[in-house]
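Chapter review: from sequence to fold.
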Amino acid sequence: MSDRGLALARSKMQAEGVAPAAIETFTRFYHLLESGESGLVREADVEPLTDLPRHADLEVSGDDAQAALARTAIIKLNGGLGTSMGMDRAKSLLTVRDDAPAEDADGTGGRDGALTFLDVIVRQVRAAREATGARLPLVLMNSFRTRDDTLAALAPYDDLAVDGLPLDFLQNREPKLRADTLEPVEWPADPTLEWCPPGHGDLYPALHASGVVRALLDAGFRYASVSNSDNLGAAPDGAIAAWFAASGAPYAAEMCLKSPADVKGGQLVVRRSDGRIVQRETAQTHPDDVDVSLDPTVHRYFHTNNLWFDLEALAAELDRTGGVLELPLIRNEKTVDPTDPSSPAVVQIESAMGAAVAVFEGATAIEVGRERFLPVKTTSDLLLMRSDVYELTDDDRLVAQVDVPLVKLSKTYKQIAGFDARFAQGAPSLRTASSLTVEGDWTFGARVRAEGDAALADAGEPATVPDGATVTADGVTP
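The token string follows.
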């Protein structure tokens, strides 16, 4: 049964022109899957990561920071469609700020003052170039469904490309497997749902297939900073670049101290058997170990998914393995149609980009502040980014002006269309709020302000917060 399933999957991938390195990576994971490999990292087999160097304590000269950044490239993972928010195009094309002045008539820098994630990323790169003189190439890992729209959005930035280097390369895709047979699922109602992304661990076979690492080395670059396009905190940073260059490490991960809001996400742990740093994703945590894995008194850090690579070490490993790095398997169980729980159960084979920490001997990590981890996974996150909690600085970094409140919006706001309709007059002021909880269906007027532990109970029907009103723990005050 399994031999047939693998043969069918390989044939399907080959017919769609999937890169050989990606097919071989899938084949490796398939064998692990059929052998019963769960990819779980048990608490008894690891120890917490402790005593990391701190970004805030780095003493780096301006010359060293400039020199390191001059040899650094910025890689952004841009394959996400924002499907969890009801989007069908690149999440990075979603408006994240609407308070910046529009730029010149050449069209760059956002339209009518509205800035997308992609606009802010480009502005951050351009600001770092202007401040340091570094060429600082920006290269996106797009998917087949994000590439065209993304490149069209980048077209007005005619100063962005660096000679000899592409603006993007493509991530791969793989078939979803029926949970009962491990054969590629068939779904004639929507054949696109027969495919899934391989997780961000696909970075490595995609880099190998595209030749991007070798192109960067040939152009004189030695280091790469890699992060998600929905994390605007991961701006180019000369101090971290200099620290990484001086460390001599082949690989480094940025880690943050946990807060009460950090209930998901990967973490680095130390494997007891050999003392090596390894990554444990949420999906790799045994149910019996979840509580201790989330306990900030035991495991102090979570993984930001901001990575640093020595490109020479990365190129050597990709060449040695043909792009097939020995990353742990993540078995992700879903239904073929995520919106239809009655559709057939499938297994998606995935891997995590950060799991490569176990591949590179001498890999290390650094503690960074929360300002370098500002991901937007939900519309609650998006409301914070659009609010006055953050300001966009002259170098286009989003900086919190107060302690960041906890925002919880009801399922009414889950899809971006419904969210935008209910905040058409702009985000409420959250600077004096410690939290905002919205139950039910409320449309916010202009100049609304939240104070303290602001909360809106479900009114049982659609309701409105009037213009200029204040929301407190007791509800709405005109």
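Two observations follow directly from the output. The chain has two domains: 2-372, 379-477. Residues 4 and 183 are 7 Å apart (CA to CA).
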